[in-house]
Amino acid sequence: MVPGNHDAYVRSPWSTTFSLWQPYMQSDRECKACSHRDNESLFPSVRIRNGVALIGLSSANASAPFLATGSLGLQQRQRLSTLLRQAAEQGLFRVVLLHHPPRVEDEKWRKRLTDGKALCAILQREGAELVLHGHSHRSVEAGIPHGAGKIPVFGIPSASAIGRKAGRRAQYYLYKVRREGDHWSVRVSVRGYQPDQDRFSLQHEHHLSVPVISSTSL
Questions:
Q1: Where are the beta strands (DSSP E) in 90-198?
Q2: Does some domain include residue 22?
């Protein structure tokens, strides 16, 4: 779980808000990336499962009325840079999770990630295999340049919205990551809500092939 603007409408004590969700947000016990004292030190969070590093960011910050902006802050960005480099040295598949779209051009000014350009600069330099976000309540497929290719970026509609437009109806994505030699095979299954059937069904799939990065290729 990664928090966003809906989790920080106003400034509130850590003990009565984010701490209640800490078990769902904190890093693996083996990871020393954070001290678990507050929202700033909890992120980036890191959980490693079967060769996949799930790196969570918090863009939750209270904003002025009629704004839905978010930000990461310098310390969180600096720690992210280090974690991405360490995960690459271990040959892990790096998934970066955050609420706001990382690219400022993918969202309106009043709803943007205010330090999105700084985040993208880190991703361009350090790399990642996949970036996932929400916030926009619509399907977003983009890319962030890195080396000779691009880092895939996926944003999805709300999982509970019943919109009149097909692009804004409830969806959720399933990501299946498998290592095959010197590449990662990624299957992205998009499942969407069908009002006439009152159920979710497969809409389409993406198939990605991502090279494995290790210390020998850095």
A1: 93-97, 130-133, 140-146, 149-155, 171-180, 183-194
A2: yes
Q: How many residues does the chain have?
A: 218
Question: Mean pLDDT in each 10-residue stretch from start to end of the chain (218 residues)?
Answer: 84 80 85 52 92 95 89 96 96 96 94 96 97 90 93 91 76 95 95 90 94 61
| pTM for this prediction | 0.89
**Radius of gyration for the alpha carbons in the chain, expressed in angstroms and rounded:** 17
CATH number of the domain encompassing residue 76:
3.30.750.180
Residue 103 falls inside a structural domain: yes
The three-class DSSP label of residue 49 is strand
DSSP characters over 176-206: EEEEETTEEEEEEEEEEEETTTTEEEEEEEE
Amino acid at 159: A
Owning domain of residue 92: 5-161
Report the distance separating Cα 109 and Cα 101, nearest Å. 12
Number of domains composing the chain: 1
Is 213 within the bounds of a domain?
Answer: no
Angstrom CA distances, 206 to 29, 77, 154, 174, stand at 33, 29, 11, 10
Token pair, residue 87, equals: 């995960």
Domain membership flag for residue 153: yes
